[in-house]
Amino acid sequence: IAAAVDIWAQGPAALPPPRQPQTPVLPVEGERNVLITSALPYVNNVPHLGNIIGCVLSADTFARYCRLRNWNTLFVCGTDEYGTATETRALEEGLSPQELCDRYHAVHAEVYRWFCISFDHFGRTTTPQQTRIAQDIFQRLLARGFLLQDTLEQLKCERCGRYLADRFVEGTCPFCGYAEARGDQCDKCGKLINAVELKNPQCKLCRGVPVVTPTQHLFLDLPKLEGRLEAWLERTWAAGDWTANARHITRTWLRDGLRPRCITRDLTWGTPVPLDGFRDKVFYVWFDAPIGYLSITANYTDQWERWWKNPQQ
């Protein structure tokens, strides 16, 4: 406090000169280097004030603070563009998924410019860099034995000739009887639903009756990582940087035991799976979208690994 009072008394002349911006912003040896991201906004709608407050505004505030401190700061974000919600909205608007993403990415970018959100780079997840990095991570997991194959039962519409993602199915909720429940969740009782559990299911595209069909998928073998993850968590929790809520949620997952998690989907809109027998599938968006942070940085600079593979700085 005494130091702050002293600096305040000296006035602006005592402040260090502002950092001259470099392009691209890269880590600097011996300096404090800060990489900031915020949750990637989904691209199938026009962002509103609640999206901005809940998503990018707090990160923007912190980025401005870091720059005022003269810390070497990179702030990246972008639109999350794969997934069934994009396909659903594209069908509603009579567009291809790519056309829909192009339209709403431009809308998002303009809204954030209007609000003066201080991104160093605002990108998107539908890029060649996203495909390259996601497929590289997948190949590394495969080579190290962290993937497995298993059969899932999914609803298939014979009339449309396609497996139906959760949002392409409607039916009666098996828990409360609501007649317009989606294939992933009931909007009336709020319970999560497996699409094959719906009563009287219908294809949202043609209103045909889908049939349950087995299909092969790839899973991330999370139980194989559980011991290593617990050891890492104990070390990081000891550093005291985790909130109580984050610790509680993580402990709950570990208490119940990690289970294999499916990382593929029978869709066409997404990052292709580069493995024989699965080339007609794409990565499930929960696996693919977080990699967007890396690929957006890679679209900003070809030296992106200096930010993402550089824990010493």
Automatic annotation (TrEMBL):
<protein>
    <recommendedName>
        <fullName>Methionine--tRNA ligase, cytoplasmic</fullName>
        <ecNumber>6.1.1.10</ecNumber>
    </recommendedName>
</protein>
<dbReference type="GO" id="GO:0006431">
    <property type="term" value="P:methionyl-tRNA aminoacylation"/>
</dbReference>
<dbReference type="GO" id="GO:0005524">
    <property type="term" value="F:ATP binding"/>
</dbReference>
<keyword id="KW-0436">Ligase</keyword>
<dbReference type="InterPro" id="IPR033911">
    <property type="entry name" value="MetRS_core"/>
</dbReference>
<dbReference type="Pfam" id="PF09334">
    <property type="entry name" value="tRNA-synt_1g"/>
</dbReference>
<keyword id="KW-0067">ATP-binding</keyword>
<dbReference type="GO" id="GO:0005829">
    <property type="term" value="C:cytosol"/>
</dbReference>
<dbReference type="InterPro" id="IPR015413">
    <property type="entry name" value="Methionyl/Leucyl_tRNA_Synth"/>
</dbReference>
<dbReference type="GO" id="GO:0017101">
    <property type="term" value="C:aminoacyl-tRNA synthetase multienzyme complex"/>
</dbReference>
<feature type="domain" description="Methionyl/Leucyl tRNA synthetase">
    <location>
        <begin position="34"/>
        <end position="311"/>
    </location>
</feature>
<dbReference type="InterPro" id="IPR001412">
    <property type="entry name" value="aa-tRNA-synth_I_CS"/>
</dbReference>
<keyword id="KW-0648">Protein biosynthesis</keyword>
<keyword id="KW-0963">Cytoplasm</keyword>
<keyword id="KW-0547">Nucleotide-binding</keyword>
<comment type="similarity">
    <text>Belongs to the class-I aminoacyl-tRNA synthetase family.</text>
</comment>
<dbReference type="InterPro" id="IPR023458">
    <property type="entry name" value="Met-tRNA_ligase_1"/>
</dbReference>
<keyword id="KW-0030">Aminoacyl-tRNA synthetase</keyword>
<dbReference type="InterPro" id="IPR029038">
    <property type="entry name" value="MetRS_Zn"/>
</dbReference>
<dbReference type="InterPro" id="IPR014729">
    <property type="entry name" value="Rossmann-like_a/b/a_fold"/>
</dbReference>
<dbReference type="GO" id="GO:0004825">
    <property type="term" value="F:methionine-tRNA ligase activity"/>
</dbReference>
